[in-house]
């Protein structure tokens, strides 16, 4: 993993069916996951997916800004899936990633991700105020060897803490840390995209 932000082989895209479970984190004094050595500052901006198109083998924004070059397989995946959620993630003000996520079915979603040129990202983000979330992400490894990502949100979402874990398959057995709260896997209103566009849901899960 590259700074908690990607799953790359060099600069090449890794596409996969992402499988993850998500939970609230309880507000307790003991926070074993809070370690500055494993913390990344993240800003995520959600783009208008309708402005992303494939021209030849190039993924473009507004038909003017080149996002990345695509392989034949990537072109097929992009054109086959019509309901993308698109975002630009900036990690520690240095690593920039472009991510397309397909429609989520409970815990799974197709995810495509590329390294992105900072200059191009800046040109896009300077156009308007895109819906965004700001958070600090901590990495924590449980006693079963599985790595968790704990997001502490900032700004209008300050106080919200969510944890997620990516799994090799949905039935994979994991040890749940004692500081986890209610599971929100598949709850769209708590997705980062929904939080960026709509803020906290009016009614919390009970």
Explain how this protein is built:
The chain has 3 helices and 12 strands. The strands form 2 sheets. It has an 8-stranded antiparallel barrel with strand order 1-8-7-6-2-9-10-11. Strands 3-4-5 form a 3-stranded antiparallel sheet, covered by helices on one side. A hairpin with a 5-residue loop joins strand 9 (132-141) and strand 10. Helix content is 12%, strand content 40%. It has one domain (14-198): Hypothetical Protein Pfu-838710-001 (Beta Barrel). The model is unreliable at 7-14 (pLDDT under 50). By secondary structure, it is mostly beta strands. It is globular, with a radius of gyration of 17 Å.
Characteristic terms for this protein:
eight-stranded antiparallel β-barrel; three-stranded antiparallel beta sheet; single chain; mainly beta; 206 residues; Hypothetical Protein Pfu-838710-001; 3 helices
Could you say which overall geometry the principal axes of the C-alpha atoms support? Answer: globular
Let me know the largest β-sheet. 8 strands, antiparallel, barrel
Q: Tell me the distance between the termini.
A: 34 Å
| Helical content class | 10-25%
Radius of gyration: 17 Å
Low-confidence stretches: 7-14
Using the 3D structure, state the CATH architecture: Beta Barrel
Q: What structural class do helix, strand and pairing data support?
A: mainly beta
Q: Give me the count of strands.
A: 12
């Amino acid at each position: 993993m590259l700074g908690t932000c990607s799953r790359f082989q060099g600069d090449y895209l890794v596409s996969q069916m992402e499988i993850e479970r998500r939970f609230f984190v309880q507000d307790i004094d003991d926070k074993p996951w809070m370690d500055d050595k494993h913390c990344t500052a993240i800003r995520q901006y959600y783009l208008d997916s309708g402005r992303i198109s494939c021209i030849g083998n190039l993924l473009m924004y507004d038909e003017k800004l080149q996002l990345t070059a695509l392989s034949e397989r990537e072109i097929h995946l992009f054109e086959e899936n019509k309901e993308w959620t698109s975002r630009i993630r900036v990690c520690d003000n240095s690593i920039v990633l472009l991510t397309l996520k397909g429609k989520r079915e409970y815990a799974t979603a197709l995810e495509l991700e590329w390294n992105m040129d900072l200059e191009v990202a800046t040109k896009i983000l300077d156009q308007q105020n895109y819906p965004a979330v700001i958070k600090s992400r901590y990495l924590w490894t449980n006693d079963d060897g599985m790595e968790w990502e704990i997001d502490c949100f900032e700004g209008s979402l300050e106080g919200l803490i969510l944890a997620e874990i990516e799994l090799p398959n949905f039935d994979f057995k994991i040890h749940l840390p004692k500081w986890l709260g209610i599971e929100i896997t598949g709850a769209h209103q708590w997705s980062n995209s929904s939080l960026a566009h709509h803020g906290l849901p009016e009614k919390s899960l009970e």
